[in-house]
Amino acid sequence: MDNCIFCKIINGEIPSATIYENDEFKVILDRFPGNIGHALILPKKHYANIFEIDEETAGRLFKLAVKVAKHIKETLNIEALNIVQNNGELAGQTVNHFHLHLIPRYTDDKVSVKWEQLELTDEQIAEVQKKLNMQ
Ligand code: 5GP
Ligand code: ZN
Fold it and tell me: Exposed site from 16, 57, 95, 133, fewest CB < 10 Å?
């Protein structure tokens, strides 16, 4: 992908603070982090978002996320961490190359992963359940 910042990072055109890489994935520090230790896991192959990535690659990526999260926990001595993964502009995705955010949490930090909760009736929930039922 010609104009993708993360593809450029992966092929070495743009420098990055890499903390781990293997044949398939690269783990870098976010250049504009929400907190110290905010890391990004990128597949080396370009997938725009979760709607493009295949289940097998995503599975291996999440397996790596468990390792990285435990490593960050041990190394930075933190107790809490958010995993965030945005898909589409409306969802806040700014780089259209699939990536997982690992954001360590500290007391009184400025990170917010929150939404206003809707007050739905049981009937409304049942309607959505019917629509989305996958079985
Ligand atoms: P998104 O908003 O797409 O979920 O996340 C994109 C992330 O990429 C942001 O957190 C942003 O700070 C990070 N980012 C943008 N440009 C660069 C860059 O050149 N290098 C690195 N390491 N991170 C970047
Ligand atoms: Zn890319």
Answer: 133
The pTM assigned to this predicted structure is 0.97
Phi, psi of 73 (to 5 degrees): -60, -50
Question: Is 97 in contact with 42 (CB distance < 8 Å)?
Answer: yes
> Model confidence over 77-121: pLDDT tens digits?
999 999 999 999 999 999 999 999 999 999 999 999 999 999 999
Active site residues: 99
- Residue 9 CA to residue 118 CA, distance in Å, equals 40
Residue type, 19: I
For residue 46, the ligand closest to its alpha carbon is 2
117 alpha carbon – ligand 2 mean position (Å): 34
Cβ atoms of 61 and 100 within 8 Å: the answer is: yes
What residue type is 35 in one-letter code?
N
Q: Which ligand is located closest to the Cα atom of residue 33?
A: 1
Determine the Cα–Cα distance for residues 127 and 122; give it in Å rounded to an integer. 9
